Amino acid sequence: MDKIPQYLALADGLFTAIQRLVPILEERLKDQNVTPEQQAELQKRIDAIRDGSAFSGPEWNQR
Amino acid sequence: MKAIINKFGWAIVLAFSLIAIPVLEVGCGKTTLDPQGVYAGDTLAYEIDKDIATSTSVVQDFLQWELANRAQLNNPQMKDYAVKLSNDFPKWAQSAVTVRDAYVRNPNKENETRLKQVTDLLRSAVREATKYLVKTPVKPS
User: Fold this and answer.
1) With a threshold of 0.80, does the pTM exceed it?
2) Considering CB atoms only, which of B2, B53, B65 is closest to A46?
């Protein structure tokens, strides 16, 4: 019984992995025509990594 | 319940290890960039940026999940890894972007080697984070 929170947390991890990884795998396997909007979106993400704003959340730079 | 997790836990870990861990390293689809876009048809730059951005997203998901569930997970080894990764990964990702910029300007052998080194680092972080995301603490009996 006391393990239930742990199992729930792990199930959450599994679903997180599924939600994140399946679309990535799908993208990798099929042909893609990347629109200007999609390219701009990726560029924005790279710019955020470059200037560090992508790492401003509490999950980053933990103590 | 425990017996079911015992039976299925390792199958789930194995299935995801086989499918999910190499996810950034496979690709048989063809990418075509609209030449009107910011990449101006530069598929190489696009693919490198895609790798960097995807790695960052996967690691971020892991870190957010671990932080949100830290008390319930009660896994000091995972916690220590997450804290270390939360500090190291931003530097690795920013280094990857810098090296990518150099490589796109000048795709010589030296820049290619440096790019491979930094992207390998990102991919190893994704592999570790994925393993933790799908891992269960329940050992098979």
Assistant:
1) no
2) B53
CB contact under 8 A, B97 and A46: yes
The answer to whether the beta carbons of residues B89 and B125 sit under 8 Å apart is yes
Length of chain A: 63
Residue with tokens 């893609």: A32
Q: Residues of A10-22 as b/e, b for ≥16 C-beta within 10 angstroms?
A: bebbbebbeebbe
Using a CB–CB cutoff of 8 Å, tell me whether B27 touches chain A: yes
A45: its two tokens: 């993400």
**Main-chain dihedrals φ then ψ at residue A33, nearest 5 degrees:** -110, 110
**Alpha-helical runs (H) found in B20-107:** 43-68, 70-73, 76-105
B88 pLDDT above the threshold of 70:
yes
